[in-house]
Write a structure and sequence with these properties.
The chain has helices at about 5-15, 50-55, 65-75, 95-105; strands at about 30, 35-40, 75, 85, 90-95, 110-115, 120-125, 130-135, 145-150, 155-165, 170-175, 185. It is α/β, with parallel strands linked by helices. The protein has a domain at about 5-135: 4-Layer Sandwich (Purple Acid Phosphatase, chain A, domain 2). The chain is globular and about 55 Å long. It comes from Wuchereria bancrofti. InterPro entries: Calcineurin-like_PHP (IPR004843), Metallo-depent_PP-like (IPR029052), PP1_catalytic_subunit (IPR050341), Ser/Thr-sp_prot-phosphatase (IPR006186). It holds the Pfam family Metallophos. This is Serine/threonine protein phosphatase.
Length: about 190
């Protein structure tokens, strides 16, 4: 298929079936077993309780600044305390103290998020209270990163499946869990 036909096909599909509208009605976060809060981005200075998350109106077009933008765009930052303006120009960066405070306030064990390339596919932050899981190996052909998925069993024991990039971009292979350090997360801080 030539490039022109491909673009015409994509334009037709986007106009006929505007699939992007689906994203305006999807939840911005979820909670696994009432213990692991999951979101794309990160934490917000506006986040006080689970009720706020349940009451986010949909359809949604997030504006900045807002709780919704932070759930999509905020990032953990090593070495800061509290919240600081985000280098991306949207939302905030937040420190380990914020992670620990939110876990206590919401009575959860962990926060799982995506949104940032991490070398090994996943990376802990905030005394293992936050994990970034990134699922695109060899991101944009510019990074030599692995991808990961987090598996949470019925006892809330977390393990990670790693997908490492091959030497050739676009070719990947499934590798058994590299770090088989599975453990029950404690709610004690």
């Amino acid at each position: 298929m030539n490039v022109i036909r491909l673009i015409e096909c994509m334009d037709f599909m986007m106009n006929a079936y505007d699939v992007t509208d689906v994203f305006t009605v999807m939840p911005l976060c979820g909670c696994v077993g009432s213990r692991i809060l999951c979101m794309h981005g990160g934490l917000s200075p506006q986040l006080k309780d689970f009720e706020q998350l349940r009451n986010i109106p949909r359809p949604l077009e997030p504006v900045s600044p807002s709780l919704e933008m932070d759930l999509l765009w905020a990032d953990p930052v090593v070495g800061i305390q509290g919240f600081e303006p985000n280098l991306r120009g949207a939302s905030f960066g937040f420190g380990e103290d914020v992670v620990i405070d939110v876990c206590k306030r919401l009575d959860i064990d962990m926060i799982a998020r995506a949104h940032q390339v991490v070398q090994d596919g996943y990376e802990f932050f905030g005394n293992r209270r936050l994990v970034t899981v990134f699922s695109a190996p060899h991101y944009c052909g510019q990074f030599d990163n692995a991808a990961a998925s987090m598996i949470v069993d019925e006892n809330l024991v977390c393990s990670f499946q790693i997908l490492r990039p091959q030497a050739m971009p676009g070719q990947t292979r499934l590798v058994k869990t590299v770090r088989n350090k599975t453990e029950k997360l404690s709610s004690e801080l």
